[in-house]
Amino acid sequence: MTEAALNVASFLLLGFLLGMRHATDADHVVAIATIVSRERSVAGSALIGAAWGVGHTVTVMAVGAAIIVFGVVIPPRLGMSMEFAVGVMLVLLGVLTLAGMGRAGSAAHAHAGAPGVHELGIHDHLHAHGDYLHRHPHGHGPGAHGHAEEQTPLARLDRSLLGRFTFYHWLRPFVVGLVHGLAGSAAVALMILSIIREPVAALGYLLLFGLGTVVGMMLITLVLSAPFTFTAVNLPKFNWRLRVASGLVSFAFGAVLIYGIGFAEGGLFTDAPIWEPH
């Protein structure tokens, strides 16, 4: 292998490793933790991470190729808007998670104090139907539960229009990855241009960078999913608290990003925005 080929191979490997490290950015971890908090299987969590990584790679490749090949220049306000969208997305993820957990928590008192439940051997505790966590008086004998498992809200959603599409479960992490890719693609492309001028090699770097983020995020989701999958079965109350905490963290982190990018000095909505791609 010639020295030039070795240098290119080393550079591409660096792109893969940096992509894996890029997956550990705080906003990425917060977003994927909020999503994976609803997942009850390790394999499903890994696929969620892969869906996020694929979405991220799509926009990094698209925007990065426009900058590298066509010399597209991104105006500061547009670049900051893409980063601002990440904050908005994190807030929405947090709100959706907290709203869902609020509905699950409100079920805890819906049937509290129902007459005769103890005489019938019926008890009341937090329990799960797949991904749906709720609470009501029930027993474990035939016909003692109070409703069939297919009558839960998530089961009804699975039978709706969305349930006809095999991959609808992966749509949310894919879209989140798309938004994150928009926010970081300009910085990645500009960094490549400062090192290598050959478009083909630069695009190869982008592709390896994207593959690295897919692998990195799959590993991260495997680690993050462990406490959620364990507590969902063994400690449902603690699982509920974990999911609420993930929603609160996502909301707070997104709010901080929104303020810092949009309203702080040099922010998007100021008279003189200052954009430093990162």
Molecular structure report:
This protein has 278 residues and is mainly α. The protein has one domain. Helix content is 66%, strand content 5%. It is built from 8 helices and 2 strands, in the order H-H-H-H-E-E-H-H-H-H. Strands 1-2 form a two-stranded antiparallel ribbon. Strand 1 and strand 2 form a beta hairpin. Helix 2 packs antiparallel against helix 6 and helix 4 runs antiparallel to helix 6. It is flat, with a radius of gyration of 23 Å. The chain starts with a helix and ends in a 16-residue tail after the last helix.
How are strands sequenced across the largest beta sheet? Answer: 1-2
Helix content: 55-70%
Extract low-pLDDT stretches. 108-126, 129-134, 161-165
Number of helices: 8
Give the total of beta strands.
2
Radius of gyration: 23 Å
Q: Give average pLDDT, whole number.
A: 79
Count the domains. Answer: 1
Q: Distance between the terminal alpha carbons, to the nearest Å?
A: 35 Å
Topology as a string of helices (H) and strands (E)? HHHHEEHHHH
Proportion of β residues?
A: 5-15%
Sheet with most strands: 2 strands, antiparallel
Q: Give the helix/strand class.
A: mainly alpha
Task: Tell me the overall shape.
Answer: flat
InterPro entries: Chloro_ReproSupport/MetalTrans
Transmembrane segments: 50-72, 84-102, 174-196, 203-224, 244-264
Keywords: Membrane, Transmembrane, Transmembrane helix
Protein name: High-affinity nickel-transport family protein
